[in-house]
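Tokens for chain A. Residues wanted.
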């Protein structure tokens, strides 16, 4: 990384607590590395570019983010979370929290994450804007399906 062209950033990398990779993969098999390969690759690439990287593991406590923001004062948070507290639909709340803390972050905003979790609504919005989508049907849980 050329210091003339790119400034060194403090990057907070948000990952699931079970996917915080070790500093090195030396001596580990592909099978051992596989669960956190993406996290390792992102973190090691950011470090190789000269950035200060602070990976934090999250499960259900937003206080971990607040503490890391206060301690490291990151320029940006790199969001690799796909769920929070065991629910995929809660990832939007982590991003909302980052916005409340006025912390710049990577990835989609909370509205986009909400829409991404609702396939039927996403298709309705696309169809409204005359973007062709495959036909679909929604079957509510715990209701008997009826044929038209």
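Reply:
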């Amino acid at each position: 990384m050329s210091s003339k062209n790119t400034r060194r950033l403090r990057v907070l990398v948000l990952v699931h607590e079970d996917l915080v990779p070790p500093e090195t993969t030396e001596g580990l098999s592909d099978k051992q590395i596989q669960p956190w390969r993406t996290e390792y690759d992102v973190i090691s690439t950011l470090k190789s570019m000269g950035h200060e990287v602070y990976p934090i593991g999250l499960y259900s406590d937003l206080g971990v983010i607040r503490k890391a923001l206060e301690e490291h004062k990151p320029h940006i948070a790199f969001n690799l979370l796909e769920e929070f507290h065991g629910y995929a639909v809660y990832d939007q709340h982590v991003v909302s929290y980052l916005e409340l803390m006025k912390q710049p972050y990577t990835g989609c905003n909370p509205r986009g994450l909400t829409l991404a979790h609702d396939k039927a609504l996403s298709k309705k919005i696309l169809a409204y804007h005359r973007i062709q989508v495959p036909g679909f049907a929604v079957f509510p849980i715990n209701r008997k399906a009826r044929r038209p």
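The first strand starts at residue 10 and ends at 16. The chain is about 35% helix and 10% strand.
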